Amino acid sequence: MASADSQPRFGQSVKGLLSDKVGSCGGDVIALTRQVLKGSRSQELLGQAARNMVIQEDAILHSEDSLRKMSIITTHLQYHVEHSKNLQDQLRHLLK
User: In 3-state terms, what secondary structure has residue 78?
Assistant: First the structure.
């Protein structure tokens, strides 16, 4: 009968250990799921950062183009101002 008493204890012990292992594995699965979700979120953030970088790069290129055009316009205006001053000087000289 000692053998019969030890069987239920052994079965309960195994069930307890099995229950603990299942709980531990469940916790590991939850932790793994959280890591996968974090990785997925990190990928989303990296993708968003890359898209923002492309937008900023386009804005910078557009700004550089605008500055180049403004420089050309400034050069033309300076030329016309100088030309206008020369004409004014010539007119003054003629009117004397």
Answer: helix
Residue reference for tokens 């000289």: 93
List strand residue ranges (DSSP E) for the chain, in order. Answer: none
What's the sign of the alpha-carbon dihedral 65, 70, 73, 78? negative
For the record, the structure tokens of 1 come out as 């009968």
More confident residue, 68 or 91: 68
Closest CA to 85 of 93, 24, 54, 34: 93
pTM, 2 dp: 0.51
Residue with tokens 């790069």: 57
Q: How many CA atoms lie within 13 A of 43 on its CB side?
A: 6
User: Concatenated DSSP letters for 31-45?
Assistant: HHHHHHHHHHHHHHH
